[in-house]
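hiii so um. not sure if this is the right channel but i have a protein structure encoded as tokens and i wanna go backwards to a sequence. like what aa goes where. can anyone help
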């Protein structure tokens, strides 16, 4: 089959819902061939009009109930239904020299379904539903979508009012949408700063968070043991501490971030002089947990050290 006829074959396959459903779902493992056939039939009808409702897709109440029974089977899970497509997408991606993994989060709003269970908060805290994180494989030259490489539904669960839940993250978690997601679920964050974010000093004055934190004088110090890891020698140091409150302005080039500033407490801990050949330790930490005393600031530093547990 030459390139032109191959392209025509795949184009016809995509445009024909029945062929697409058979190619995508005929290998799904649902522990019963009747379930597999039902899944292929349902996928074919859904592909005809992805925006329609299930009853509209199935055409009759008998077919609709049959689909609901299928989806209610313990073996018919989201992961099981997605597995063949994920595998096919991976095989397509492996044949390309460069593949972009384009991802985003979609919120599924079920606020109008008051009796539904298993959902969480979305949007402005009053919405109810769940989120889906999707990763698409894309050829950059043609912008062709090869398929879905990963898709994960999840629910954000607010912290209980009687306790404080704090998300601990390294520099990769220094993201404004993450800060706002924590706030929307009544949880807190404590992350190591990576971005020298804009800070509102006054109505006319803008400064930068890392620059500001590094200008603060030491307010306390204490001994600190740096463990051996990643080829680094263990050593004992004297750790300096400075802390204060800053208001971070939202990034101008992040479409997912709201325009509301975020107030944080900033702790900077650092080693004034490191041995020759060693990089001085410095952490600049951002937290939404109020931090107004030296004891609280040291406690936040100790919280951040708990992040090492996930690396061990």
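sure thing!! here u go:
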């Amino acid at each position: 089959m030459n390139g032109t006829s191959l392209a025509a074959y795949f184009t016809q396959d995509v445009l024909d819902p029945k062929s697409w459903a058979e190619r995508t779902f005929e290998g799904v493992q649902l522990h019963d061939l009747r379930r597999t056939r039902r899944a292929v039939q349902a996928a074919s009808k859904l592909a005809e009009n992805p925006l329609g409702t299930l009853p509209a897709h199935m055409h009759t109440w008998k077919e609709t109930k049959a689909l609901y029974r299928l989806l209610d089977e313990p073996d018919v899970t989201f992961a099981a239904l997605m597995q063949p497509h994920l595998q096919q997408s991976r095989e397509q991606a492996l044949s390309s020299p460069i593949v972009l993994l384009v991802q985003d989060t979609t919120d599924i709003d079920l606020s109008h379904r008051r009796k539904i269970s298993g959902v969480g908060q979305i949007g402005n805290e009053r919405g109810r539903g769940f989120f889906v994180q999707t990763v698409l494989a894309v050829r950059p030259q043609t912008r062709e979508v090869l398929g879905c490489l990963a898709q994960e539904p999840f629910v954000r669960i607010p912290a209980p009012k009687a306790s404080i839940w704090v998300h601990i993250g390294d520099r990769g978690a220094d993201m404004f949408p993450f800060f706002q997601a924590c706030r929307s679920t009544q949880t807190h964050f404590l992350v190591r700063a990576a971005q020298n974010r804009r800070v509102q000093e006054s109505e006319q004055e803008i400064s930068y968070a890392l620059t500001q934190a590094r200008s603060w004088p030491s307010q306390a110090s204490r001994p600190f043991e740096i463990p051996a890891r990643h080829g680094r020698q263990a050593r004992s140091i004297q750790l300096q501490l400075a802390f204060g409150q800053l208001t971070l302005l939202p990034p101008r080039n992040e479409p997912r971030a709201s325009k509301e500033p975020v107030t944080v407490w900033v702790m900077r801990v650092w080693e004034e002089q490191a041995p020759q050949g060693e990089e001085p330790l410095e952490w600049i930490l951002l937290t939404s947990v109020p931090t107004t005393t030296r004891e609280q600031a040291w406690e936040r530093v100790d919280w951040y050290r708990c992040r090492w547990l996930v690396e061990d």
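oh and The chain has nine helices and twelve strands.
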